[in-house]
Design a protein that fits this description.
By secondary structure, the chain is an alpha+beta fold. It contains 12 helices and 17 strands.
């Protein structure tokens, strides 16, 4: 955090420890200088200097120590006192409102995290200025953990059009939020969000409303062509493939990227699947470039060279087990289904069809393939044998 915010946080910790709350800027600078061995400095978007602990393990230990000390202290927790001090930094407006447009950039990005630590996030979501100005990227994972109807529907309202929020100015974001609030029947929130706008929503249809919506994942630069859900190491992941020639992996709980995009395909990535290849979890992708690629799901690194053989777009991929081996199955516009050993990448079998293969599903040794207007069921054991057509 920047020096000015650090000063407020330090005052909160001193107060919770029974010391006077006042700290001069010079004292903060002296303390930061003495602690420089344990700190890393970065430059914020506005050019100010940010300070952070040099290692996450140190941050976790200090947090645990603070939590242990807090058990012997009556009154607000340290996290609550930090939040109260940080919230007080936001200039006050009429009627006790806050002028978020004048808040520190750090607070626009991280106020939600401090509020959540103090169990005050739902109260903060009632602040329409915060909803308009807060950084959507850091707010979204916290909203994903809130139940439907949280903060009197403010969380549902924000999630409804999250994909557009991070591209908009605060004023435009407030207008979008106002319409979404009307969709959820929260006219009070809609009016507060649009209080300074020319138009004020009074009613909206709710076909696009869903209280079950938790995350909207954004980063692809073109159409998303395929998605899959699976496991990578100790976490559940969502995998997406796109016309932008990349595969992206997301933490299924937080919606945050689980690593950099997987690159290597030279045209649209049309299909993706998650499964096992021997002792490792893998992501398999198929592309318009005619290749199938296999990636280590944990590291994101290629698990071997591309699997080649298709002569046109690979439109479908699946991962499963056939007989005594893990297999990858792929199908495409060249009217073939191909089976590969998932560990070695060696071709196992091939089946010709009369039409393009558009999608595949593999369960046990049963493979269902979409061929034009028909679904064809095949047995993989490990050689493909037609069962029905």
């Amino acid at each position: 955090m920047p020096e000015r915010v650090t000063r407020q946080a330090a005052c909160a910790f001193l107060l919770s420890s029974g010391y006077p709350a006042g700290l001069e800027s010079g004292e903060v600078r002296t303390a930061l200088d003495r602690l420089r061995f344990y700190l890393r400095r970065e430059v914020d978007l506005d050019g100010s200097t940010l300070y952070r602990l040099f290692h996450q393990g140190l941050a976790d230990q200090l947090r645990a120590d603070a939590d242990q000390d807090a058990t012997a202290v009556t009154g607000p927790s340290p996290a609550t006192q930090v939040w109260q001090h940080l919230y007080a930094m936001i200039p006050a407006g009429p009627g006790g409102s806050r002028r978020w447009q004048h808040a520190e950039p750090y607070l626009l990005r991280h106020a939600a995290q401090h509020a959540a630590a103090a169990d005050q996030l739902e109260d903060l979501l009632q602040d329409t200025g915060f909803l308009s100005y807060a950084d959507p990227v850091t707010l979204a994972p916290l909203l994903a953990a809130l139940p439907a109807g949280a903060a009197d529907g403010a969380a549902d309202t924000y999630r409804a059009s999250y994909a557009s929020h991070f591209r908009q100015s605060p004023a435009a974001r407030a207008q979008i939020l106002a319409v979404d609030a009307a969709r959820y029947g929260n006219l009070d929130l809609a009016q507060r969000l649009s209080s300074t706008a020319f138009w004020q929503p009074v009613w909206a249809t709710n076909q696009s409303r869903s209280a079950r919506l938790r995350l909207t994942l954004t980063s692809h630069t073109r159409t998303v062509a395929a998605v899959a859900v699976g496991r990578a190491g100790d976490r559940d992941v969502i995998v997406s493939a796109s016309y932008d020639e990349t595969v992206r992996v997301w933490d299924a709980v937080t919606g945050q990227p689980a690593g950099p995009p997987l690159t290597g395909h030279t045209r649209t990535v049309a299909a993706v699947a998650v499964g096992r290849a021997g002792d490792r979890q893998v992501i398999v992708s198929g592309s318009d470039d005619g290749t199938v690629r296999v990636w280590d799901a944990v590291t994101g690194q290629p698990a071997g060279p591309p699997l080649t053989g298709h002569t046109r777009t690979v439109a479908a991929v699946a991962v499963g087990r056939a007989g005594d081996r893990d297999v990858i199955v792929s199908g495409g516009y060249d009217k073939t289904v191909r089976v590969w050993d998932a560990v070695t990448g060696e071709p196992v079998a091939q089946q010709q069809f009369a039409d393009a293969i558009l999608s595949l599903a593999l369960a046990g040794e049963t493979l269902a393939a979409a061929q034009g207007n028909d679904v064809v069921v095949l047995r993989v054991n490990p050689v493909i044998l037609p069962v029905t057509g």
